Amino acid sequence: MTFIASVTSKRQLTLPVGIYDFLGLKPGSKLVIKLEGNSIRMESAEKLLHSLRGSIVLPKKYSGKSTEEIITDAKTHYFKEKYAK
After folding, report:
1. How many domains does the chain have?
2. Are 45 and 65 contained in the same domain?
3. Mean pLDDT of all residues in 34-47
4. Whole-model pTM?
């Protein structure tokens, strides 16, 4: 599949509906974006995490939490340590 996307003056990317639907995205969905040479690769963060399920052990502190809650907790922890110095 090939699509054309637009970049706004605020450097935001507008995804074509075909990609949005194919990835099963919703407003607020997170994407993992990788730079590969001169190309960009995007994956649904939630689908990527689900594909890794079973290959890593989830720490007990994250048990029962949504992907969004885990990301928020990780960011909070990171910035507390970063600015505590």
Report:
1. 2
2. no
3. 85
4. 0.49
Question: Residue 31 in contact with residue 43, Cβ under 8 Å?
Answer: yes
Three-state SS string over 26-71 comes to CCCCCEEEEEECCEEEEEEHHHHHHHHECCECCCHHHCCCCHHHHH
Q: Let me know whether 47 and 84 are in one domain.
A: no
Same domain, 4 and 45: yes
Provide the 10 A C-beta neighbour count for residue 46.
19
List pLDDT tens digits, range 68-79: 888 888 899 888
CA–CA separation, 69 and 18 (whole Å): 28
Specify whether 65 is located in the same domain as 45: no
Domain that holds residue 25: 1-53
Name the burial class of residue 82, with classes exposed (0-12), middle (13-18) and buried (19+) by CB atoms within 10 angstroms of its CB. Answer: exposed
Beta bridge partners of 56: 53
